[in-house]
Amino acid sequence: MILTEETSTNTFTAQLEKIFVTEDQILEEYKLPSEIHQKFYLSNGEMKEWNGDVHEVYSPICIRTLEGLKRKLIGTYPVCTQKEAEEALEAAKAAYNHGRGEWPTMSVSDKIVCVENFTKKMLAQKDIVVKLIMWEIGKSYADSVKEFDRTVEYIYATIDALKDVDRESSRFEIEQGIVAQVRRSPLGVVLCMGPFNYPLNETFTTLIPAIIMGNTLLFKPPKHGTLLHYPLLEAFKESFPKGVVNTIYGRGHTIVPSLMESGDINVLTLIGSSKVANELKKMHPKVNRLRAILGLDAKNAAIVTANADINLSVQETVLGSLSFNGQRCTAIKIVFVHKDVVDEFLEKLKTEVAKLKYGMPWEKGVSLTPLPEPHKPGYLTQCIEDARQNGAEVINENGGATVESFFYPAIVYPVNRKMKLYREEQFGPIIPVISYESIDEPIEYLIESTHGQQVSIFSNDSVEVAASVDVLVNQVSRVNINAQCQRGPDVFPFTGRKDSAEGTLSVVDALRSFSIRSLVATKLNDNNKKLINEIVSNHESNFLSTKFIF
Q1: What backbone torsions phi and psi does residue 210 show, to the nearest 5 degrees?
Q2: pLDDT digits (tens, 9 = 90+) for 140-151
Q3: 282 and 331: one domain?
Q4: Residue 45 Rama label (left phi>0; alpha psi -120 to 50; beta)
Q5: Which of 344, 54, 329, 83 is nearest to 202 (CA)?
Q6: Are residues 442 and 362 in the same domain?
Q7: What digits encode the pLDDT tens for the residues 62-112?
Q8: For residue 70, what are the β-bridge partners?
Q9: pLDDT at position 3, please?
Q10: What is the per-residue pLDDT across 296-338, written as a single tens digit (0 to 9) for each?
Q11: Strands 332-338, 430-436: pairing kind
Q12: Looking at the domain assignment, is residue 206 inside a domain?
C-alpha cells in the first residue's frame, strides 16, 4: 500500500480525534462538581437574582458520545440588558459620590484591609476557579493553577507597592514658603473589561489597582471566561462597601455604548482589540475627561540573525509562539530568520514542534489544547489557505490539522507581505517564518507595522545586538535579547507603542494609572502651622496625615 499525503492526514486526524474522551474517562479530580448556572449578579452591594435570558457556556473540550464529539455544556450566565447595566452605573456613581463616598475617602490602611479580606475569601475558592479556567478556555490545568497563584501574588505585590507609595507621601514638603502634602487620589468610575486568554490574571491586573486606589467599578467579564468569576462575587460583596464593585453581563454591543455615551465613565480599561477601544472612546461625550488604560493588538516579531544560537532561538520561538496555543498578546507571531541559517532553523523548529504533547488540559505535561473560540480553527485554516495561494507552504508534518476545537500547530514558510499572516495577528498556533538578507528588512517591517509592543532578537554578536537595540527601542516598548517576548516580571512596565497599548501597567505603574497626584498646600505661617498640626495630631483627615503604614 502506498501512503499518500491525504492518507497520512486522515490517519493523523483519526489520531487527533482520540484525544477527546468520554465523560466517564475524565478523572474525578478534574471534573466540575456540576453544571454552574449563574442566577445572580452583583450590583449595588446586592446579589440580585436574574430570571431573564441566559448564555449557554460550552467548553472547548469536546466529549465523545454515541452521536460523535460534542462540546460539553458547563453552565449558563445572565444576558442582562441596558437597564441592569445602567443601574450598576448609578450604583458605582453613588458609591463614588463625586469623591465624597465612603470608599474614595477611606484611609489607605483601611482600603488595604478590605483587599486583604477579599484575597482570603478568593483563596477559599481556588479549586473551583482553577477548574473553571480549564473548562472554559481550555488552558492546561497546570497553567490554570499558575494563573490563579500569579493573580494572588499580584494582589499582595500591589498592596506592598501601595504601602511604599503611601509611606513616601506621609510627609510634608516645604518650598519657597509653601508647605504641601502630595498624595494620589482616585479618578472616579472605572469600566473594566478583561480578556479571555488570561481571564483572571489580566483582568485583576487592572481591576485590583483600580479598586485599591479608591475608584468604584463596573466589571464586565470576558465572553469566554465569564463563569470563573461567579464564585468570587460573594467575596467582592462581603469585602467592599456597596456599589464599589458591580458586575455587568450581556452583549457588549448592547450594554456598553449607553454607559460610554452617559459621560459618567471616568476610566476605560480594556484588554482586547484596538478597533473596539477606538469605537468605545469615540462614544464618550467628554473625551478629555476619559482616561484609557488599554492593552491591545500585537504582532510581536522574532529576529534570528546569522550569529544566533540556533538551538536557543528555536527553543524560545517555540515557547514564545505556542505557549497557551499562541493565544497571548505577547506571543511571537512572526519570525524573521537570516537566509544563511533559515534551513537549519526550520529543520530544528519542525523537530521541536513535533515534540510538543497535545491532548486534554488535565493531562500532565500537555502543551497544546483545544481552542476556546468556536470560529478560530476556521479562521486559522483560512490564513493557511491564503498563504498557500500566495506562495507559502505548511512545512511541518500534520501542520494545520483540525478536529473540532483542536488545531495542530502549523509552521508556514516562506511568508511575504501579500499574506494575511504577514499583517494580521493570528492569535493562535501558527508560526509564520520569513527569510531575510539584511537586518533592515525586519526593522522596516516593525516601522511599517501598526503594532509596537515587543520584539525578540537572537544574536551573540555584541555589536549587532547593540546596533539593533538602539533602533528597536524606538519601535516597540520592550526588546528581548535571546529570549521570548513576555509580560513579566510584574514589576516591569508593560505597555506598547502605536495601536498596541495606551497607558502603562506594572505593579507600581498600575497604581499611578488609576489615580492622579493631588496636593494640599498653604503658606507657612504660625496660624497655618497650628491648623495643620491640629489636623494631623487629631487624625482628622485621611489625606492630611503622617501616619506610616507598616
Answers
A1: -60, -45
A2: 999 999 999 999
A3: no
A4: left
A5: 329
A6: yes
A7: 999 999 999 999 999 999 999 999 999 999 999 999 999 999 999 999 999
A8: 63
A9: 42
A10: 999 999 999 999 999 999 999 999 999 999 999 999 999 999 9
A11: parallel
A12: yes
| pLDDT (average), residues 111-118 | 98
Evaluate whether 544 touches 520 at the Cβ level (below 8 Å).
yes
Percent of the chain exceeding pLDDT 70 equals 98
Tell me the C-alpha to C-alpha distance, in Å, between residue 184 and each of 173, 192, 493.
15, 20, 19
Asked if 183 contacts 169 with a C-beta cutoff of 8 angstroms, the reply is yes
Signed CA dihedral, 414, 417, 423, 426: sign only: negative
Instruction: Tell me if 524 is assigned to some domain.
Output: no
Q: Which amino acid is at 486?
A: Q
Q: Does residue 130 belong to any structural domain of this protein?
A: yes
Task: Give the span between the Cα atoms of 537 and 533, in whole angstroms.
Answer: 6
Residue ending a domain, among 245, 265, 295, is 295
Instruction: Based on the fold, state whether residues 262 and 183 are members of the same structural domain.
Output: yes
Q: Residue 293: what pLDDT?
A: 96
In this predicted structure, the answer to whether residue 390 has a pLDDT above a threshold of 80 is yes
- Report H helices in 375-525: 376-389, 420-423, 440-448, 462-472, 507-513
| CATH classification at residue 88 | 3.40.605.10
- Alpha helices by DSSP H, listed for 356-409, are 376-389
Distance CA 503, CA 509 (A): 9
Q: Residue 268 sits in which domain range?
A: 84-295
Beta pairing, strands 216-220 & 245-247: parallel
Cell of 426: 493570528
Amino acid at 466: A
Residue 192: which of 163, 229, 148 has the closest Cα? 229
Whole-angstrom distance, CA of residue 61 vs CA of residue 73 = 10
In a domain, 9, yes or no: no
What's residue 2's pLDDT? 42
Number of folded domains that form the chain: 2
Closest CA to 257 of 237, 235, 230, 284: 284
CA distance 260 to 290: 10
Task: Give yes or no: residues 291 and 309 share one domain.
Answer: no
Nearest-angstrom CA–CA distance, 450 and 166: 38
Length of the chain: 550
Q: Measured between alpha carbons, how far is 72 from 131 in angstroms, rounded to an integer?
A: 14
Residue 328 CA to residue 295 CA, distance in Å, equals: 11
Report cis status (omega within 30 of 0) of the bond before 414: yes
Do residues 135 and 241 both lie within one domain? Answer: yes
Give one DSSP letter per residue of 426-457, joined into a string: --SSEEEEEEESSTHHHHHHHHH-SEESEEEE
Kindly list the distances between the CA atom of residue 273 and the CA atoms of 198, 209, 298, 478, 499, in Å, as whole numbers in the listed order: 15, 22, 9, 20, 9
pLDDT band, very low/low/confident/very high, at 550 (cuts 50, 70, 90): confident
CATH of residue 441 = 3.40.309.10
What average pLDDT score do residues 200-228 get? 97
User: Is residue 322 located within the same domain as residue 287?
Assistant: no
Amino acid at 185: S
Residue 107 shares a structural domain with residue 175:
yes
pTM above 0.85, yes or no: yes
